[in-house]
Structures
1.
Amino acid sequence: MLVPQKTRYALRALFELAKRYGQGPAKIAEIARVQAIPGRFLEVIFPELKRGGFVDSKRGREGGYFLIREPIRISVGEVMRFLHGSLRPVECTDSNSKKACPLRESCVFLAMWRRAEQAAAEVYDGTTFQDLVNEETEVHARRAPSYNI
């Protein structure tokens, strides 16, 4: 499954807010700069994330966007499903699919597609934004020069 650019931008924006959790609202321009996301995309994405119950905003000079739940309480899978409905690699794994496949009853690929969907769900649902913040901290710690003799 290819993750759409919009979803990748939304995940990076939420990641940035997760890093700043509890520090007050963050401005779109700052999030855009740090995460290399075009600001216009964020202007479209944040209202969607607000409708999804992930973020809220504060108006004014000290305003911006912030997470409304702790980063450990938001999984990547939850956000991905909200933005594009499912984690299915192909449409035919959905038993309610409107596109009828003539091979569905004897399809040798169906079980594999379902396993792929389940594996993706385990990874995405098992990864919270706090996990990502922790991972970034570890990556930076490994890259930091050591001056020990």
2.
Amino acid sequence: MKFYDRQRELTELDNLEKQTVSSARMVVLTGRRRIGKTALALEFARSRRHLYLFVSKKSEPLLCAEFLEDIRRQFDVPVVGEIRTFQDIFRLLLELSRKEPFTLIVDEFQEFLQVNPAVYSEIQHLWDVNKGTCRLNLICIGSVYSLMRRIFEEKKEPLFGRADRIFNLKPFPIRTLREILDDAGVKRGRSLFDCWVLTGGMPKYMDLLAANSALTFERMMDFVLQTDSPFLDEGRNLLIEELGRDYGTYFSILELISLGKTARMEIQSILAADIGGYLERLENTFGIISRHKPIDAKPNSRLQKYRITDNFLNFWFRFIYRNRSAIETGNFAYVREIIDRDYPVHCGLLLEKCFHELLAESGNYNRIGSYWERGNQNEIDLVAVNDLKQTITIADIKMNKTRLGIEGLKHRARELLASYPRHRPEWLGLSLENIADYLPK
């Protein structure tokens, strides 16, 4: 698959590289696995002098020997003596950048914690001493979100405050998925939405589907539900290292959220355990779930729901992980029956999320959310507010447009509108076919 999107990030990387004319620059690319961090860095560096180093889990002397070979292939380096530490490797690279500016990409940067945790302090010291006299453009890539946040954003860590920019890459927006489908010759409409529901816009997943001609729902499910499919163990592969030894409890919580058990007390009663700390870490440390409140809720309001932020993980926990016994015995037909039965309900909740994202991208609103009252009464799928123009858009969202009802929506919104007496309301009924109306022409 060709390189898509990321124009903003490429422009910013170009601007930062230009700044190395006066001193070295450090950039961090983070975001979950499969988001395209390495592809972005290599696309940026493709036409530039660069060196790519991958931090694998091996002893520091062996790793440095590998790095030294990579350096010698790119540069004329007369090395005297043996280099066995990354400190010496980094010192050498800083020295080389004094003579010739170049981009250094260090992938899986968080793995130095396993190789030698002192590396971060050593980098800090060399960076602070040499930054002003070197022209190195350093790009650090990390796929374990919690560790990269700790390394670069916690005040007690040696590299805190050293990065000139931290990019937290997000999945492709739905407009980019439309471009991928157009390039593949696949009709838009339902296929576009189904691709977004399964992949959430993750570049690696779209690449896999496109390469295997699996960009329609039937072909997607055939590809996902087969022996040795890369999607079957993907949730485990993504999260076990991130979540650590308590991953079983985290997985149970995520499975329940994927099934629509979105309130803390509801989850807690099912698991018969206090899960407050787990929810807090899933939200704030790992970034796997997010907390949602009614759009006009006060900061201390207890009206809140949890959602899995990643579409693929939401799908994986609901349909793959929950049916892991059938998966392990190869009974894919059974899992397909479950998907055919429950997929429409799963899609209904995600259609709301889709329109939230599309309206946010329009730039016409300063606040977008949902609304409900205590006991989940008077639920409204989408509320978008423009306080400057004093407008409020209130929408009912249904997969089946025949189930849309504006009069019922107006009835449910009475208390909401009482909080916006000066705002002019706009009423919308949105269904699957309206997605195209909110995409760039």
